[in-house]
Amino acid sequence: MTQSQPSTLDELLDAFKQSVLDKDWEALGQVDQQLRTLLSEQLARCDTEEQKRDMAALLRRLQKVYALAERNARENYQEIATELSKLKQDRRAVRAYEQGQDLT
Questions:
Q1: Could you give the dihedral angle defined by the CA atoms of residues 77, 6, 46 and 65, in that order, rounded to the nearest 10 degrees?
Q2: Residue 8 burial class via C-beta count within 10 angstroms: exposed 0-12, middle 13-18, buried 19 and up
Q3: Considering the entire predicted model, what is its pTM?
Q4: Once rounded to an integer, what is the mean pLDDT over residues 32-61?
């Protein structure tokens, strides 16, 4: 099932948040680029005070989602670091076992 491309800032922001929650880093990068492009276009067109207020509210929401992305990325990094540490310990244990077997 193919998903349609998000086209509004709200849709992109929702897609960005979902990518963060799904830990879909590839999709996150794509949505981030689309979001930045559309956001730049929208910011250039903000003329009225109402548009500026709406954009400020959207930027605050965006800031929260980016903070979530950063937090999740740090947690993911820590999980990977922990797994790598365990793998190194296991590898050392296997080597020690193999060396012990060579002595017998």
A1: -20
A2: exposed
A3: 0.66
A4: 90
Q: Calculate the CA 69 to chain-centre distance.
A: 4
Q: How far apart are CA 73 and CA 20, in angstroms?
A: 8
pLDDT at 4: 52
Q: Are 61 and 12 in contact (CB under 8 A)?
A: no
Q: CA 21 to CA 97: how far, in whole Å?
A: 41
Residue the block writes with tokens 């099932």: 1
Least Cα distance to 10 among 45, 47, 58, 53 occurs for 58
What are the CA-CA distances from residue 48 to residues 42, 84, 98, 103, 104 (Å)? 12, 53, 73, 82, 84
Residue count (the chain)? 104
